[in-house]
Amino acid sequence: MAFGKNKVIFAYVPAIIDLFVQLAFINFEAILLGRLSPIVLAGAGIGGQVLLFLFVFLLTFAMGSSLLISLELGKGEKEKAREIFGRAVIYVFLLSILLAIICYSSAKFIFEQIFKTNYETNVIAKTYFRTLSLFLPIISIDFFIISLLRGTGETIKSMTLSLVVNLTNAFLSYTLIYGKFGIPLLGARGAAIAIGLSHTVGLILSISFFIRDKLNFKLLLIKGVDFGILKKLFKVGIPATLEQILWGIGQLFLVALISRTSIDELAVMQALFRIQMLVGIVYQAIGIVSLSFFARAVGAKSPRAIIRFSRTTFKLAILSALIFGLLFAFLPHQILQLFFTDKKAIALGSRVLRFIAILQISKASVISVSSLLRAKGDLIWLVVTNGVFMLFFEIFLGIVFVNTLGYGIFGAWAVMGLDESFKTLLHLKRATKTGIKNL
Questions:
Q1: Cβ burial, residue 227 (10 Å; 0-12/13-18/19+)
Q2: Does the pLDDT of residue 299 top 70, yes or no?
Q3: Which pTM value belongs to this model?
């Protein structure tokens, strides 16, 4: 198989557009909610983050399938790749039903016992969380299909589906949050309904693509379970899931610490998270596409291609980080004005965003080098380092910086930056010394 540099870069562009549109909508939703009230943004933000954390359990199949499919494509086994795709979709659907039941029934405990904010924020968080839970099977399947297409190099098709979902989402969010066209104002509940309905549209379009055979994979109606494929999915997917769960625990722990300081800092933290997510999609796109090409190179047993991808990926990641770092450093006030009208929130957010500008190199680098280790099969290393670093930086240093030293939101971002910087150095050293492991 050909591994031309132009082909790699061409695959990055639609992936970046795809993820940019997806995260742009998340920020658009935050702007709409923030202009209703900082409390509405804080409540919906917490609800969304908790659901996103629970959502990572589906990564067992998403990450596992993407890597296995790319390996099979690298070997030239297209039919095997298609079978893995079809089976993975069925497994995700069954898991998402169970997850939806757990999410809906546990909402009261999560938001009343773990996140002890004021009463109004808790009510909004529970409403947003439970409404999204009702749509979780539909959201899961649609999200999974788009992610799997993106993760296996089908970036133009994933971009098309993502554009439809997010443009629909933007229109419905404006309509339902603010109560336009004769519909009552629904606030955070309207935002959740808009997400569910837009993914319903996306899933219908995905199915129509499969029926008309415009996608290179089969949506199979499979009888029985192939335990060989299921074992491989778990072998590759569980470490990736644990890696993301550990990362998510660290993020939620920092949010929980900030939630006990002040509602202003919590609202600013949610806005900054969304800003970082928006620029982080460029880093994620580079990482996702790189994983696909790394895995195909591994499947084709082409060390020279792995080296070439590594250099291209790292250069793109650093260049992107420098661009966004400069934007954060010189335009923080203008960026925060998109989220808030409150001058106090804008001033606080601007100061923190200038600090976050310094962290962009480490954020881009750790995603890039992690993709190489993942494709080489060094999955246990990634889980162990994420676990150890989460316990030391996000938990231990988080308590010290945020509470003990009183650095608040600055302390939270400082420990994330330290985590990613040291992790990047360790991963780089590891990537140059280890060989390819058997998946």
A1: exposed
A2: no
A3: 0.63
